[in-house]
Amino acid sequence: LPDMGTKLLCFVLASALLAYYLYTPVPEDVEEPWKVMFISTSFRVLGHLAEVTDRLGLMNYMEALMLITAAEYVAPTSDENITVTDTEFSNVAVRLFLPRKPAEGLRRAVIFFHGGGWCLGHAGMKSYDLLARWTSNRLNAVVVSVNYRLAPKYHFPVQFEDVYAVTKFFLQRNVLSQYGVDPERVCVAGDSAGGNLAAAVAQQLLEDSEVDTKLKAQVLIYPALQTLDLNLPSYQENADQLILPRSLMVKFWSEYFTSDLALRDAMASNRHVPLQSSHLFQFINWSQLLPEELRKGHVYTGPVYGSSELAQKYPGFLDPRAAPLLVSDARLRRLPLTYILTCQYDVLRDDGVMYAERLQAAGVSVTHDHAKDAFHGAMTFISAPAELAVGHRLANRYLEWLDRNL
């Protein structure tokens, strides 16, 4: 009998553990809830395993998560519509998609930066390869998908410098001419950390006297745009949300700048910004920049300042190249036509909403597409087996906007 009791206890504990992993609250209005729950659970399990391997000193947390990227990798494969090659632009690896259909005139071009918190991802991941392929085929456009170097091996500003070098190289008249691209129809785009890089590149190009070609547009898909306040309403509401909980976003942000856990701990408690940088908070004051429906139930309180030591050691987190929301309105005014996608169930939602608000106020033409039933990373789920209807819908909206505006 005691043996029976032990077995029963083990069964109950195993069931409770399984239930803990399997039960992920999925918002009511999200399509295909069971599929989403399964995907979210898989990510949770991988996150816990990465945590264990990190604590045991077997493998860095981010390196363990990179196994997802490796599993998703597809080789560059051409088809009847697109020629796909892996090459280098300005010594940075890129995956190049060239349409085979004849063009009536010069082609459009999209320079795309993948997401993954500056630590994960690859242009060769099945979902990014497919999205670039669709973009190239539907727009009859040249697509340059950039493989920038990643943390923890490389920290800011390496990721930014890689994508900037590729963009600057591609925008040269002779390079555009080589690929039959219209210099007046080039766009930068990216999702999540890639959206951050696209916004930073678009800003930097305005300051660069060596670049003659102007971007026609920037496309920012659920972008991360500010490092100052990691307790915005969206961070609070979605702290334990699907795919990108607040704790993981804090890890991504801190790892972008350093592997020093002191910065991660300070960011986790939202006490990383020194008093000397207090003037920057005007650019992300959500009490003025968010619409009433997103402010609802939240009371704005001023920042709690941290030590100046972290900012002196790792100044990158206060650099507009890492946090594009931190620039003045005067710098925003000259930015190109903009598309911003935000998702309701996303810690980064308010970053995108505030940027859209500030760009519109500065006179930039902005399309702000807010998906009320979607979550962070939804557009990456467009390929089997983790294929979601919401991913297809958002990808189609993005491609339709590009087709109309580029």
From TrEMBL:
Residues 110-269, 317-379 form the Alpha/beta hydrolase fold-3 domain. One of its GO terms (molecular function) is carboxylic ester hydrolase activity. The keyword Disulfide bond applies. PROSITE patterns: LIPASE_GDXG_SER. The keyword Amino-acid biosynthesis does not apply. The active site is at 192, 346, 376. Keywords: Disulfide bond, Hydrolase, Signal. Gene3D superfamilies: alpha/beta hydrolase (3.40.50.1820). Residues 1-19 form the signal peptide. One of its GO terms (cellular component) is membrane. InterPro entries: AB_hydrolase_3, AB_hydrolase_fold, Arylacetamide_deacetylase, GDXG_lipolytic_enzyme, Lipase_GDXG_put_SER_AS. Belongs to the 'GDXG' lipolytic enzyme family. This is AAAD deacetylase. It comes from Chordeiles acutipennis.
